[in-house]
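User: What would this chain look like folded?
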Amino acid sequence: MSIDNEDTVFQVVVNDEEQFSIWPDYKAIPNGWRAVGKSGVKKDCLEYIDQVWTDMRPLSLRQFMANQNEQR
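Assistant: Here's the prediction, encoded as structure tokens.
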């Protein structure tokens, strides 16, 4: 199986910083990432990510900025 094959099934994964990616379904998910419950062909997974990942900033940066705004 190849990741370049358009029929390859991927999983949508997310890390602790709430950054999304896709990972081939036939490979073990790397440490630090977890499945979000969405899988399918590459196009479908990327469309899903476009819908749900609306703030590209890492979670730690969003939290830092929120704390800075609260202190003002």
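The longest strand covers residues 33-41. If you want, I can go into more detail on any region.
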